[in-house]
TrEMBL record, chains A, B:
It comes from Rehmannia glutinosa (Chinese foxglove). This is CASP-like protein. Belongs to the Casparian strip membrane proteins (CASP) family. The keyword DNA damage does not apply. It is a multi-pass membrane protein. Residues 40-188 form the Casparian strip membrane protein domain.
Length: 203, 203
């Protein structure tokens, strides 16, 4: 800000033959153009990260949502079967990651607006606010499911909770994969927030 | 940005009797002062939120860290006892919330720098980056522990995990309280990120 002011003053003093108003505007336009090129690059990177995060979130949702396993043996009374909605945490995971995916897809137009009009701070501020909320949602879903997946793998002797992964091996594999995908989406979202903050700073 | 430019031009044209350089600087200084007053208010609010979040995180750490319960009866072979380190998730919770508390306390000087020099964007950008990472840590700890606390309260018949809160009632109460405090700290951290983003925008 101060640097720009100094530049405009120097220009208007060195070119006395001109009106003095045009160089001021010209310098401002030149500064805006330089900032706009930098910001356009950031906005394009933002769009790429956003689409990657949406893909990861979608993969996590679908992997968890379609997970079920039926064991090949059954007793007289019931058949052993595991699906994601047996555990409330996994249901929360599916709902939360579906919301994250939906938000990321819906935010793509705003990201494109930031590419077309790189200097506009409004859409960027909107994106950083919503991204912060979304990163929290994704992280809480991933963290909660990670705790349950750990329990399913290892069990807990103190609480007398047995590991269920010996029986439901395929089920455990798939839920672990979904949790990893959710963490990837969360890390990409953190980068999105950081990127938006850096873009907001360099005006 | 454009508005400031327009103001400075008008002033330098309306006061032809003066050198033309002074009003330009005066307008810039006036604009800086207005922005600085606004930013100082935001920075003070930031400091208050930060101390509240540190208190909540410290409360969560201490509550979880000091939780243990010994049941008043015992069998011939062992005594029933529950403490936070029986469950790896709760150990993660204590470590993560201790890191969050430490970061929040250490970030107070940077927040004070933002009050003293409100226009400086460097410390504010540093704070928003670290706050984003911290909010993720706090949320994942809170989410993971919430999943385990839910399981301790309700159990899960499909995985054959029994609720342990009938026996360890006091233990469950305290861990639930710690999780709630962690969520409060996470929400305050979200506000901190949003506040910093808004302050970065209004330059």
């Amino acid at each position: 800000m101060e640097k720009t002011e100094a530049t405009t003053i120097e220009i208007s003093e060195s070119s006395r033959e001109r009106k003095g108003k045009a160089p001021l505007l010209a310098a401002a336009v030149a500064h805006d153009r330089a900032a706009s090129g930098y910001k356009r690059g950031v906005a394009i990177f933002d769009l790429i990260l956003r689409i990657s995060a949406a893909t990861a979130a979608l993969a996590a949702t679908i992997t968890m949502g379609t997970t079920e396993q039926t064991l090949p043996f059954f007793t007289q009374f019931f058949q052993f079967q595991a699906s994601y909605d047996d555990l409330p945490t996994f249901t929360f995971f599916v709902i939360a990651m579906a919301i994250v995916t939906g938000y990321l897809v819906l935010s793509v137009p705003f990201s494109i607006v930031c590419i077309v009009r790189p200097v506009a701070a409004g859409p960027r501020l909107l994106l950083i606010l919503c991204d912060t909320l979304t990163v929290t949602l994704a992280t809480s879903a991933a963290g909660a499911s990670a705790a349950i997946v750990y329990l399913a793998h290892n069990g807990n002797s103190d609480a007398n909770w047995l590991a269920i992964c010996q029986q439901f091996n395929d089920f455990c594999q798939r839920t672990s994969g979904a949790v990893v995908a959710a963490f990837v989406a969360a890390v990409l979202l953190i980068f999105l927030v950081v990127l938006s903050a850096v873009a907001l700073k360099r005006r």
